[in-house]
Specification:
122 residues, alpha+beta, 3 helices, 48% helix
Amino acid sequence: MMFGVPVKYYMMQKRQMVNDYVNTEVRYITDNIRNTGIISAGQYRQFREKVYCASPGSRIYIECEKDRDDYMEYYYTAQIEEELDKRDKCMFNTGDFIRVRVVDADNMLIAYYGGMVKDENY
């Protein structure tokens, strides 16, 4: 008991630090996409490496909603990664809604952030 409590506390603190770090990275890449309307293959690769190093076994989900005149169009992680492989960047339009989620190996949500693309890249 004397050793178990400090170890459990340490593990909880470590998990919280990992969650905070991953949340910061998710917010950074999401805000970058929202502000510029672009994600490059290099940015995505760097983001993925940081997340996987901090939380091995985690999964990244990126979703984009494009509001067309009479319907909604949806793009998911696989389609975005395919676009990055083909063209080395993926472009979004002003008004598209981006969501980035990271879940750990136990399917627990670590980070979630999203917002509308502003495309302030003049």
